[in-house]
Amino acid sequence: MDNIYKKIELELDSLSKEERNEILLRLRDEIDIIDRQIVHLLSKRTLHSVLIGRVKRTLNLPTYNPVREKQVSERIGSFVEEPLSKEALLRIYERILDESRAIQREESDKGNIFNVSQAKMKIKLSQLLSKKEFLVVFAFFIIVLSILYYTFFTPNYYKGSSPVKIEVRRGEAFSEIVDDLYAKGIIPSKANMKIASFMYGAEKKIKAARYSVPNGLSYLGLVNFLLTDQSGLLKSVTVLDGSTLGWIALKLKDDIHADSLEVIRLCSDKEFLDSLGLNAQSLLGYLLPQKYDIYADSSPREALKKMYDGYKYFMTDSLKARARQLGYSVPQIITMASIIEGETNNKPEMPVIAGVYYNRLKKGMKLQADPTIEFARKGKWVRLNHNDLKINSPYNTYEHFGLPPGPIDNPGKAAILAALYPDKNDYLYFVANGDGGHHFSSNFQEHVRNADKYRKWLDTSKKKR
User: Fold this and answer.
1) Does some domain include residue 138?
2) What is the pLDDT of residues 426-448, one digit of tens each?
3) pLDDT on residue 119
4) Is residue 106 part of a domain?
5) Cα torsion for 318, 324, 325, 326, to the nearest 10°?
6) Which of the listed residues 252, 283, 314 is the one where a domain comes to its end?
7) In whole angstroms, what is the distance from residue 177 CA to residue 169 CA?
8) Residue 463: what pLDDT?
9) Residue 398 and residue 402: Cα distance in Å, rounded?
């Protein structure tokens, strides 16, 4: 109709007689449709007047309400649109109100004279549209549905081998995921992908994971795939301070179903260690304890590399320079940190214990660190006896001077920092105090007294059991 309005406004005088007659017929057809709609709405309005009449009768209220009719007139006047004037509109509505008032009065006086029902108010399609108009609307919807089907249900094929892997990181925006899909050629249109995701309500439901996207998925098929594929979900794997390689292997088996035997093998595999750039006999000591985000389909190599990268990121150049300042290599610092970690989980005490060990090294004393004996025994923790202290191992710091050949566990950040920044003290000995901490002493006699206190505490604890 907009085209007809423009022709009448701008081209009417230049149109042929046939064209003007055609416009006249179109306008009359439009008026017929509008009239049907007006009659339907007037009937619906009258229905409500009839019902109001019934309600008024039960409330003993008068049919005529001048205040209400004034409000209606004022409200109707505010709705006026050109070319109707406000006065003309009010005259028309005055007649409508007269008829409604008369019907309402008759209904209120006589009671239930009209058989009204909601079914009478339903409008038939034929009342709104002619056959020709119905066909036009039907054809329009068929075209729209065809376009939607072609756009969102037909396969999209990408070049290259299938599947293509994409990674969705934790907290990644949906627009970034779409950008990655587009950059890798998986989808030909970002807009269509966003529309398909909106249809699914999937913008905030796609989980952090690594997806292997097969070829030939439609937009809606791809959205469904991203919502349902669970094989490569991003898992949180927490490595605890002081963890052993065996514990980490079991942790990776439980959390991402990694082959624990392969994890253990790789930790001492020279080719793998060389690929990491690590000049050591084992990864023990260099898998930094912290929380890692690891994809569930990661290989043991990938998982271990991520943990080693955590260590490399933490061990900054300034920390390496601090090691040199102390006169030790980085592997020696990590070894010292692992012993500190084995001695206590009381983080505030770690620098004090570090100070004790450095003091003993400076004086040429043996470290005599129990955790190194535990490591050499390769068994479960038990209270050590004198025979254990004679075990034949380079890790026996009761028999050998200096640091052991390498780390005995994977020390946490606090232990590493304690090894790099030890407390300045004159302590040479320490023994547990039974409360999760230690008694420190500068001479052997005081140490013996502290050790006696600890043995008495142990004896008392056994009796209480």
Assistant:
1) no
2) 999 999 988 889 999 999 999 99
3) 52
4) yes
5) 120
6) 314
7) 9
8) 58
9) 10
